[in-house]
Every structure is written in structure tokens, then in C-alpha cells.
């Protein structure tokens, strides 16, 4: 078993163990579900965060997506981008991270996209998980307004609730995910 296969297997195990919460919940999209995938329990976990970085970098590599920076709408995407930034650095690769605010600031420099500039650079928009694709689309819009060349949207877990189709149709970019809900056992 390769280290990449081991990384995926261990991350999946941790997601099943730590992130899946069963019970009726209202999602950020307003939709209701019988389970919640709390990926902050993974992306902010001492063992899982480095695995997130390795698995997500490998996902982009396997898809042939080159990026100079990764990030997304603040909160869900922040630790994913940070994990990827640190893993890329460990591998001797240059990869910046950025944060997208829901709206442009009305003070300071008035930016919506924070961190190293994305203008003219190939970037990937991240999210921990997506239901409708709304957060990722908000991030894509903000990054494009800042001059970034969005190559793809990548998430850790796809809930299989239409986000992929919506993002590909509305943003015109590929939608990648490390794990589907079937792999997590949420069929």
C-alpha cells in the first residue's frame, strides 16, 4: 500500500469516526438533513489536518490541476488551504493560501480576498464540504473579481446534493472531491 493510499484510508477513517454527526440538522444552505459532516473536527485535528493537506494536494495533482494558490470562503476553507500550504512547503512546493470574505471590506484596503495577491494567478477554490455549492460560488466570484484564474473547485467531502453540477454549470470549472458520501457510508 502506497503512502498516498494509506493517507486516504486513515483520513477516511478519521472522518467517519470524528466528523459524521447523525440526527436532524439544518445546513448552511437552509436544507435539512439526517446527518451533518462537521469537517472542522477534521481540518483542525492534530492528526487529520496534515492528512487533509496531503490528500487534497494529491487530488489536484491527479486531476492535472496546477495552482499557485488555494483558498475559499472564510471558515470552512481556511484550514483546508492552510493544511495544503503547509504540506506543499514540506514537499518543497510553492503554494500560497488566501481567504475570501463574504463581502468586500468597507475599511482598510477594502479587499474581499485576503492574503497574497491572486491577480493573474491560477488558483483553486476550496471548501470542506458543499451541499448546494453556494459558498464555493461566492468565493469563485470574489476571486475572479480580484483577478484570479480559477481552475477548479475542490472539496474534501461531496454530499452528492447538486453542488458539483451547479458549480460546473455556473462557474464553468471542474468540481473535484476527495471523498463521496458513499465512501463515508452515508447512502
Explain this structure:
This protein has seven helices and eight strands; from the N terminus they run αββααβαβββαβαβα. The chain has helices at 3-19, 40-43, 48-63, 78-90, 134-145, 163-171, 181-184; strands at 20-26, 32-37, 69-73, 96-100, 113-114, 122-130, 149-158, 174-180. The strands form two sheets. The chain has a six-stranded mixed β-sheet. It has a two-stranded antiparallel sheet with strand order 1-2. Helix 3 (48-63) packs across helix 4. The longest helix has 17 residues, at 3-19. It is globular and about 40 Å long. Orotate binds at residues 131, 159.
Neighbour order of strands in the largest sheet: 5-4-3-6-7-8
Largest sheet: 6 strands, mixed
Number of helices: 7
Gyration radius over CA = 16 Å
Distance between the termini: 27 Å
Order of helices and strands: HEEHHEHEEEHEHEH
General shape? globular
Q: How many E strands?
A: 8
Uncertain ranges: none
Mean model confidence by pLDDT: 93
User: Helix/strand/pairing class, anyone?
Assistant: alpha/beta
| Strand content bin | 25-35%
State the helical fraction: 40-55%
